[in-house]
Design a protein that fits this description.
Helix content is 43%, strand content 22%. The chain is an alpha+beta fold. The chain has a single domain, classed as Uncharacterised protein PF11572, DUF3234 (Trna Endonuclease, Chain: A, domain 1). It has a four-stranded mixed sheet with strand order 2-3-5-6. Strands 1-4 form a two-stranded antiparallel sheet. A hairpin with an 8-residue loop joins strand 5 and strand 6. Helix 3 runs antiparallel to helix 4 and helix 4 crosses helix 5. It comes from Alysiella crassa. This is Protein of uncharacterized function (DUF2750). InterPro entries: DUF2750 (IPR021284). Pfam families: DUF2750.
């Protein structure tokens, strides 16, 4: 099963910017929970909206959302390698969703962590930056295993 990248402008900007700066931003509360909001698209088994964990490509974009329920959240910088290896892999295993470049009204791209990982890996490879990411091959292997499982499930159904 071939991964199809998203084409929304704000999503593509996120991919380019975080690869440029090797940094992802989020908001975090005093208990180390990331900013989250209910999904507009995906529901869990109980019919309730899935949680979407929000990340941004710039400090300014994250700070624009530092209001209302997130007003007391702290701005956190995450190195891109850590984000891919720790956050996205764990979120995939936990079947969470990622919110990319949400605006102050909480509109943005909702995406599965493995899809975001695939797009980031493709951008890193396209730019010839593989050597700068020690875990690149391990992350690529994780992605390929996931794609193979998804392809096999598609054949079964």
């Amino acid at each position: 099963m071939k991964h199809e990248p998203h084409t929304e402008p704000q999503y593509l900007e996120f991919i380019k910017q975080v690869v440029d700066t090797a940094t992802v931003y989020t908001l975090q509360d005093h208990e180390d929970y990331y900013a989250e909001c209910p999904s507009e698209t995906y529901n869990n088994d109980l019919g309730e909206p899935e949680a979407v964990y929000c990340f941004w490509h710039s400090k300014a974009a994250a700070q624009a959302c530092q209001q209302d329920e997130w007003a007391n959240y702290e701005l956190i910088e995450i190195h891109l390698a850590d984000f891919m290896y720790e956050n996205l892999i764990e979120m995939d295993k936990d079947q969470n969703l990622v919110g990319v470049s949400f605006d102050a009204e909480l509109y943005g791209t909702e995406i599965e962590p493995i899809e975001l990982l695939a797009d980031l890996l493709d951008e890193i490879k396209r730019r010839g930056l593989v050597e700068e990411f020690e875990e690149f091959e391990e992350l690529q292997n994780y992605r390929e295993q996931w794609e193979q499982i998804a392809w096999q499930q598609q054949i079964i159904h």
